[in-house]
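Entry 12.
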Amino acid sequence: MVIEVMKSKIHRVKVTQANVDYVGSITIDKALMEAANIIRGEKVQVVNVTNGERLETYAIPGEAGSGVICLNGAAAHKASVGDVVIIISYASMGFEEAKTFEPSVIFPDTETNRLVK
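Predicted 3D structure (tokens):
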């Protein structure tokens, strides 16, 4: 049996931009992506804590240390600048492996979207 489990989570960051005139995706500060073990092009779920919207898209890296969280294309209609979101990715694995798998979860500063040291 193969199941999907949470692989990575960026818990509670603020949307800094929403760009409707872009092909699609979510731009995420590269430092946050690396800390959460999310790679370019990886499918992510974006959960908007502010308005309850949920969507799936793919991650693209933004400038490291910038704090950028930008919903692009149609996804930009699902959030406003200042909304708090959680970004989650999942992985498929065997049931036994999933029992011991440890996801990468980070808790950035919600005001700056930067890693807390």
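Annotation: The beta strands are 2-14, 17-19, 25-29, 43-48, 54-62, 69-72, 84-94, 104-106. The CA atoms of residues 28 and 69 lie 5 Å apart.
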